[in-house]
Amino acid sequence: MPTKKTATPKKTYLNNDLPIVYVDGISIGHRDDGINYVSLTSNIPDCTVEQVRFMIGDEHLPRIIDALCRAIDYFPKKPSKKRRRQSK
Questions:
Q1: What pLDDT score was predicted for residue 3?
Q2: Strand, coil or helix: what is 30?
Q3: Reported pTM
């Protein structure tokens, strides 16, 4: 009997009370336990303001990145190993 790895929700509930924010930048930090810290920021004349931060697992982050790339029809290439910064 086949089993599903992830269950698909039957309904999506939208929270219409959430504010819509404009963001200029994204920062992603990867932890060793498979969780990623994502921060979205906006630039204003005097500083940069963090608008949103969230944690997301390794299994879900690629879906978000793929959706963003498809939305703007931009598919970056993986950097070559030569160009990667070597850790000390």
A1: 57
A2: strand
A3: 0.68
